[in-house]
Design brief:
Blueprint (H helix, E strand, L loop, with lengths): L1 H17 L9 E5 L5 E6 L20 E2 L33 E5 L2 E6 L20 E7 L8 H4 L14 E8 L12 H9 L14 E6 L9 E9 L17 E13 L2 H4 L16 H5 L10 E2 L17 H12 L7 H10 L3 H5 L8
Parallel strand pairs: 4-10, 7-11
Antiparallel strand pairs: 1-2, 1-5, 3-10, 5-8, 6-7, 6-9, 9-10
Bound molecules: 2-acetamido-2-deoxy-beta-D-glucopyranose (NAG) (4 copies).
Length: 362
């Protein structure tokens, strides 16, 4: 009790102050047990730098494409690398080991929302789902891998691009639950709806996650590489600084030590434990959407309102929902915060509802 309140006091402040400048990366990987609870020892990205380590700052882990200072922010160049320079090789840093997981295992990739979910009006012209997060998988990563060789090229069935890898998952950056503590109405609503005890890892915040599944065919005794790509574009004609819009992509490159195979997730697909501690629980809709036979299907979720309280999902409708959203963002006429709010209301996700997706809440 006493410890909790100390931790809370200690952590609330820094996260509150930092949200405006911080961007996101995969901070931790964890295996998810059949009941949806995180299990085992967490793993970390290549070249990870823990927030608690000396010398940490926001740029030690963020990797932006196009990079700051690019001549044309609407362009990703064929030479733009997929992985940050500190994540080019399959190397771990001291204290940040690789995740060990079985082929077919369900894995949560967790990241902080940094206000991008709870304070969406801070960045005009951004997608309502706060961008889309993609996870690509390969047993044949390359040093010097380029973004365009992978992102938008590799496909779920493995026939895309140079066929070295697959698209494993596509989700909304906003997982429907996550928040940082601030006085915005979204954060306050979520603090009430998804309460948890502050802890030394997340502080009082609740991190976002993307739940993916390793292919059942990932060879045991080898490394399997995951590329996390957060695609968070600015639409044209909204922010006067970017009349043509801009691309804004962040990545994290990770490897997993594959040891054996598991069928636990698929066998117990319906055994998600209700009312479990949110600090260590998969997102129910994403978890349920993982493929039953552990094949490399791209899991997807539909567009969700950032103010939505529902986390139900239906994979069938996601393509539709994404298309509706993209159409919408490219036609936003004005620049103001009001425009964003109006937008939030006018994106009737009725069409999505009709196809089985989650509604926009109000
Ligand atoms: C952040 O840390 C990196 C080393 O990881 C260093 O090169 C850089 O100068 C630091 N930036 C700031 C703003 O302190
Ligand atoms: C950036 O590139 C796009 C696509 O090639 C082009 O249409 C646009 O005019 C360029 N913008 C600037 C500012 O050069
Ligand atoms: C879920 O399963 C794991 C591993 O079997 C177990 O440690 C954990 O207590 C279970 N969680 C709940 C909420 O039942
Ligand atoms: C937050 O406020 C905005 C603007 O007033 C509103 O559109 C939105 O529905 C609110 N969200 C929540 C979760 O209260």
């Amino acid at each position: 009790m006493k410890l909790d309140s100390i931790i809370q006091t200690f952590w609330v402040l820094p996260t509150f102050v930092l949200f405006a400048t911080a961007h996101s990366w995969v901070e931790q990987l964890t295996v998810i047990a059949a009941n949806g609870t995180f299990t085992g020892t967490p793993g970390y990205a290549r070249g990870n730098w823990l927030r608690t380590a000396p010398g940490f700052n926001d740029t030690t882990m963020t990797y932006l494409i196009p990079p700051d200072g690019s001549a044309n922010v609407t362009l990703v160049l064929p030479t733009d690398k997929l992985c940050k320079n500190t994540q080019q090789t399959q190397t771990q840093s001291d204290g940040s080991p690789r995740l060990k997981a079985s082929a077919g295992a369900a894995i949560a990739l967790r990241y902080q929302e940094n206000g991008h979910v709870t304070l969406p009006w801070n960045q005009p012209g951004k997608p309502k789902n706060r961008g889309t997060v993609y996870v690509y998988g390969t047993t044949e990563p390359k040093v010097g891998e380029t973004l365009l060789d992978v992102h938008g090229a590799w496909t779920a069935d493995g026939t895309g691009g140079d066929k070295r890898g697959v698209l494993l998952s596509t989700q909304n950056f906003d997982d429907g639950r996550c928040y940082q503590i601030n006085t915005g109405n979204i954060s306050e609503a979520r603090q009430t709806e998804y309460p948890h005890q502050a802890n030394s890892l997340m502080g009082a915040d609740l991190w976002c996650q993307q739940d993916v599944q390793l292919p059942a065919t990932a060879p045991s005794g080898k490394l399997y590489t995951l590329y996390w790509v957060w695609d968070w574009p600015t639409a044209p004609g909204v922010d006067p600084t970017y009349p043509q819009g801009k691309k804004e992509i962040y990545t994290t490159c990770m490897d997993i030590d594959v040891t054996g195979t598991t069928t636990s997730h698929s066998q117990e697909q319906d055994s998600y434990a209700t009312d479990q501690n949110l600090d260590s629980a998969a997102i129910p809709s994403e978890f349920a959407d993982l493929d039953e036979d552990g094949s490399a299907k791209a899991t997807q979720s539909p567009l969700e309102s950032s103010s939505s309280s529902s986390s139900a999902a239906s994979s069938e409708s996601s393509a539709t929902a994404t298309t509706i959203w993209q159409t919408f963002t490219s036609t936003i006429p004005t620049v103001t915060e009001t425009a964003w709010r109006t937008m939030e209301k006018t994106v009737t996700v009725r069409e999505c509802q009709a196809t089985g997706a989650t509604s926009a809440g109000q």
